[in-house]
Amino acid sequence: MRCPTPRSQAWAATFSPAMTAPDQSARPIGVFDSGVGGLSVLKALRAELPTENFVYVADSGFAPYGERDEAFVIERARTLTQHLQSQAHLNIKALVVACNTATAAAVHVLRQEHPQLPIIGVEPALKPAAALSHTKRIGVLATRSTLNSQKFKTLLHGLTGQAEFICQPCDGLADAIERDDTPKIRALCAQYTGSTGQFGIKNGLIDCLVLGCTHYPFASDHFRQLVGPEVHLVDNGEPVARHTRRMLHQLNASSQPGSLRLLSTGQPGALSLAVERWLGERACQAERLDSITR
Prior knowledge:
Layout: H1 9-15, E1 29-33, H2 39-48, E2 54-58, H3 70-85, E3 94-97, H4 100-113, E4 119-120, H5 126-132, E5 137-142, H6 144-148, H7 150-157, E6 164-169, H8 173-178, H9 182-196, E7 208-211, H10 220-227, E8 232-234, H11 237-247, E9 260-264, H12 268-279, E10 287-288
Parallel strand pairs: 1-2, 1-3, 2-9, 3-4, 5-6, 5-7, 7-8, 9-10
Helix pairs in contact: 2-11, 3-4, 9-10
């Protein structure tokens, strides 16, 4: 897929706010997260929608969201959405909030403020896990903010009687993944799976582990070593990608692979390295997004 540089004339032509009507389908899909975790969702989106153009914003200058209060997360989500949606800036045609914490805190606000914009949120994949589980004991790893949110509590209540969910807040794990601190990631994964319970496929054991933060799939290898090969690791990337396709009013008419633009309110080099490490794309150079860093 093409990864245009900040000065790419092709990018400017493709995404100019002054597009003619036939070009409207080429407008990008916006994706944002507190940092690099949303790349796990972006990867699924690009697999599902290979001709679509994407712009990804890592709000790394204000990460992690999972340990911030709700008002702070709402304000950042509003600021990012306004920038992505504005015709003077990126003029997106749809928005994916690729962060469980931001979805739980702010997606209802964003939908109220931008009623014409398709906005897709993410949530811990409790329903798919309940369908997969045979023992009906399911571990849920997520940020403390997500687990304490009313949106999550409503989701959990709606599954009453379908399974037992053991919810474990994972303080510091998203930040360790953000910093690619392998020893810390390994230690925290061991700590939190140990606190969740015993894993396996026998009755009474946890046979599904929900990775309820978009950062956590990037620690899947560590989780797999800890819980064993038979336990299901469940994240929400593919379901979100399929739902995004259903929500789009216009698919990009191009037959060419879509473009990707990377923006960061933190260090753009860190985002570029994360894309290279986890998406296998070496040509993508992230840009510093200074206009919304305050």
